[in-house]
Specification:
2 domains, 6-stranded mixed beta sheet, about 40% helix, about 15% strand, globular
Length: about 475
């Protein structure tokens, strides 16, 4: 037995060189398959609520999402986090049910119920067996239409969120993203943290929450999307029963967002945090709105730049140089122009070098063409991710809901694959030159400044340094008043 084991081991070692010579280059991606996406059917109720149904048979499940067409962009300038707070409190009690009764009722149905706010919307989502849809959707209608916003629930949520934000603002990555929002958008509707700050949350009163709900939660500014094993006629009947009597609150006055006509000039900001174990580097600039015709182009361009492990930023910063565990970038497409950001966490000593590498990659993408060997796989990643998302009812409802929210044709979902496939190397180079030039980008670095500031100032001029104890993310200058 012992001889046999030794012989086997020797044979394995002898074969290692042969195995090492085997070609490991993956085959090129196959042509994408055409997805069969059910056609949405829609109806608008007399009160203005738009109802969209996507019937998808085969699995007895339904996902529903109610979208309110206002979110963080509607936060008052002095109360960032109000939309998020309002949405989070919806399930904490209604005029007929306590928070515990809502939770137990949803659990008894085998359903899930979630609420929250994004930049352009507030939402309530439910997922349930199709046979239990009327009851589950009844809970959703109740929390959206009849929340009580009890003071004890407000105080509990406020303290939880303040505690979480206090921790987040001590983390270089989170703090850098807060500061970058202000650097890109200034005093505009997107120029704050969606969840607010400890100071703004402490200032939010119950009357503010009630007023926000009264002004923005109304049927003529809402969309209900249902997807799964439900016939449109039945879905419309349930919607009429649960939402047909919903009317705008008396005295409601939704305020239009004051969108920016221009953006602050790009600049470099360093938040000096001597206690930071590592530095966070964020490069950002104004990006695109969701309804921009360059939507598919932005997706493909970003996939090449920083949209995954094989992206250029990750290749250059992590794989080649070992300066980070990961580097990524994204376009956050919103109702108005949203941000483009590239983020990296690195050693304090290499923060200046990393900032320069990100700027170099942005400029390179606009000056040199992308090879087909790089472009094809990145398109395949996007198309594969799109297909996987549509395998679930919630993913399908999310996609259709986003199109409806931004006033786009629901048929655009059928043009995603062809839109991605149509992008050429020349398109990317032209787009990157116009929208990703590094010289027009701002840089925010949070870390121990003494370890990287000299190197940073060699490459970038007019670097503003703000000591952490002087930082005020609620201030227009990012500094505490003296």
């Amino acid at each position: 037995m012992k001889t046999t084991l030794i012989t086997a081991a020797a044979l394995s070692l002898a074969l290692l060189p042969a195995f090492a010579q085997v070609e490991t280059t993956p085959p090129p991606p196959a042509a994408p398959r055409q997805l069969q996406i059910p056609k949405p059917v829609e109806k608008t109720l007399a009160n203005g609520l738009r109802v969209i149904v996507i019937e998808k048979k085969g699995v007895p499940l339904v996902a529903a999402r109610l979208l309110i067409k206002s979110g963080g962009e509607a936060d008052p300038a002095n109360l960032p986090g109000l939309a998020d707070t309002t949405a989070s409190l919806l399930t904490k009690g209604t005029t007929t049910k306590s928070a515990e009764e809502i939770a137990r009722g949803i659990e008894a149905l085998g359903a899930t119920l979630d609420t929250g706010a994004g930049w352009d919307e507030s939402s309530a989502d439910v997922s349930v067996m199709s046979s239990q849809l009327p009851q589950a959707l009844g809970f959703l209608a109740d929390v959206v239409r009849h929340p009580t916003f009890k003071q004890e629930e407000i105080d509990r949520l406020r303290q939880q969120n303040i505690d979480a934000l206090s921790v987040a603002m001590k983390q270089p990555g989170r703090l850098a993203s807060f500061v970058m929002a202000h650097v890109i958008f200034g005093a505009g509707p997107y120029g704050h943290n969606l969840g607010g700050t400890p100071q703004s949350l402490a200032a939010i009163k119950r009357d503010d929450i009630v007023a926000f709900h009264r002004n923005y939660y109304r049927p003529d500014a809402a969309i209900l999307v249902l997807g799964g094993d439900i016939a449109p006629a039945k879905a419309f009947a349930i919607a009429q029963e649960l939402f047909g009597g919903w009317k705008p609150s008396p005295g409601s006055h939704p305020m239009p967002a004051a969108w920016l006509k221009g953006f602050p000039s790009p600049h470099v900001v360093v938040i000096d945090m001597p206690a930071a174990g590592q530095a966070a580097v964020v490069v950002g600039r104004p990006g695109l709105a969701r309804n921009d015709s360059a939507y598919h182009l932005s997706l493909v361009t970003n996939s090449i730049l920083g949209g995954g492990y094989s992206s250029r930023l990750n290749e250059e910063i992590r794989i080649k140089r070992g300066l980070s565990y990961g580097a990524n970038s994204s376009f956050d497409l919103r109702r108005d122009v949203g941000p483009f950001t590239a983020t990296v966490q690195t050693k304090n000593e290499s923060a200046g070098e990393v900032a320069g590498l990100v700027i170099d990659e942005l400029n390179k993408l606009g000056t040199t063409p992308v090879e087909d060997a790089e472009l094809g796989p990145r398109k395949a990643v996007l198309i594969g991710g799109f297909g996987r998302q549509l395998e679930t009812n919630s993913g399908l409802v999310g996609r259709i809901g986003t199109l409806a929210l931004y006033g786009l044709s629901l048929d655009e979902i059928n043009r995603y694959i062809s839109g991605v496939q149509a992008i050429t190397a020349a398109d990317i180079q032209k787009f990157a030159a116009a929208h990703l030039g590094g010289n027009d980008a701002s840089i925010v670095i949070v870390g121990d400044a003494k370890k990287f500031l000299p190197a940073l100032q060699q490459r970038f001029k007019n670097v503003e340094v703000i000591p952490i104890d002087e930082l005020d993310v609620n201030s227009a200058t990012l500094r505490k008043a003296k």
